[in-house]
Amino acid sequence: MALQGPRNRSIAARATLLLSLVIGLIFVAAGVSVYFDIREQTLSQTLVQLDSYSGQVSALQESRFARLGAAHRNARALLLAELASGDSNENARLFNRLFPSDGRGARRSIDLLFDGGQTPFGFVRGVGAFVRAEPDMQEKSLLLAATRVAHAVGEGVRPDLKSLYFFTPDNALIMFAPDRKDQLRFYRKTAPPSLDFQGETFARISTPQANPRRETRCTPLVHILYDRTGRTWTTGCMTPVDVGGRHIGTWGTSLLLEDLLGATELDGPPGADVVLVSTEGMLIRHPRYTRQSRAGAEKLLDLTATRDPALQALWAFVQRHGSAPFVGRARGLHAYVAMRRIPTPGWYVMVMQDESVLRAAATRALIRVGITAALCLVIQAVVVALLLRRYVRQPLKRLAEQTRDLTSRIEPGPVADFDDDLGGDEVQRLAHDFAVMSTRLTEAHEGLERQVAKRTEQLREANAELARLADFDALTSLPNRRRMIRDIEARLASSDASSLYMLLLDIDFFKHVNDTYGHLAGDRLLADVAADARAVLHPDDLFGRIGGEEFMAMIEAESLGEAWERTEHLRETLAGRRRKLDGSSDVAVTVSIGIAAAFPGASFSALYATADAALYDAKRNGRNQCSFGDAVVD
């Protein structure tokens, strides 16, 4: 048994397939719509989440620097209060005990101050000091007071801040850092007596010239002062101290990069990366590159000099959008980004999520919708097939049998044209029976339809010819006066009138041509002049014959001068051609042209009157010339 093709299937089967296809397409369209809707919702939620997280990171980082600033202000206030008590010889003796000379021209703190022990001002630990020049009485009191304040305030802010130090313009430094692994040996033991750090960034930003507002300022990422290996990176925040308008020193705190990067808030939300970039273009943190902790200079990526395309795009994005908070899609990074600036250090925090993460989330939702739609499609196909079989296929089958019976009655005897191989297609069976009944009627109708079609085509051609004759000149095939009026009025309404010019052309001595060479020669002349003028004019210029030997054109020009040049070129071209009117001798035929410049609100009649008057002047002044007409206002 051969398989039935699509045409031989029952109508119920075909309807089921068709409905399944249509409903399937609807499901596909709905799925696509759902995909984009979910994608937009996911994007919106993601951007809100990224922006919120970047705000949290920025706020948490800034809070560290805010606590640092508060500690510095407290230390400055305590130091000024200590200094207000005045100097004493006891301070000088105590200073000499705690900061003895190292025998090389400098003074350093005794080991007890770092290791821990009792001093005249209580138990002290974690303090190291270096004094380059021999201080006077006043500076000794200042350094002793700074030692007491550094220890007191420093103990109060541990472990949030791991260091607090005070340095003077004379290269004296008191530092509280009990948790430093190097135990401040550089300042207590090995620093050269000639150590001068006034040229370092942390000292420069503390001077009145660099910091006239005398506020807390932070350095960019720099190597720690004593580390010549380039493996320790830090940023320092400095708060200057002035007395009576004189800069006496600066409170400072160094934040090691590894401490900043150890924060858990930098881990980011699921699927997102948290990136830190300094104002100078140093990549502080990027999970997919080097996590910048204890890294040498070769690993702390300089975005301003990197050759990595992804990092170049990152730095370009920061430069382009760093002036304000940003939330949105970063095309060059192929990610969605929320970026904020941490005010005190001037760093940028970016929370980035790759575009593929959003696409994957939307795709997973689409797959769930697709599976549900497929199950619904199978169920509806089964239900539709059962319903169509009962309410469509069986009634059609009975109708086909009745139609066949009726056909056999109209034509007695067996129906020879009936095809038993039509299979299960009830509609084809029914159509076949009706075809046998209607054969003779069809032939008559077809003959009548052929006659009607023939007459209709003849009428259409006649109407087209009438329409052409109504708008075009039969001799020259140019638009006639009626068509020109309509086209020019439309051009005036839709274009800048100040750039439009109407030309009225008249063949000189045309009556003489008709009288001398005959009207057939005159007709040929009209056709030749029309063709030559049309060839000279621009394709978008309007040109037509408005009667007798008169032609009309509407041209565009940027100025009166350009309009005059174009018109003169037209006149010279027509006058320069020799024409054979009698079949032998060459005759020069000239034209006179009147020009009317259009103006805002100009009408056809006003321009025509102006051009006609100008044409009259050209004729009166000797013909074969152009003439500009004065505007006539309706």
From TrEMBL:
It holds the Pfam family HAMP. It catalyses: 2 GTP = 3',3'-c-di-GMP + 2 diphosphate. Keywords: Membrane, Transmembrane, Transmembrane helix. InterPro entries: Diguanylate_Cyclase, GGDEF_dom, HAMP_dom, Nucleotide_cyclase, Rev_trsase/Diguanyl_cyclase. The chain crosses the membrane at residues 12-36, 365-388, 587-609. Its EC number is 2.7.7.65. The keyword Ribonucleoprotein does not apply. Residues 390-446 form the HAMP domain. One of its GO terms (molecular function) is diguanylate cyclase activity. The keyword Transmembrane helix applies. One of its GO terms (biological process) is negative regulation of bacterial-type flagellum-dependent cell motility. Residues 498-631 form the GGDEF domain. It comes from the Bacteria. One of its GO terms (cellular component) is plasma membrane. This is diguanylate cyclase.
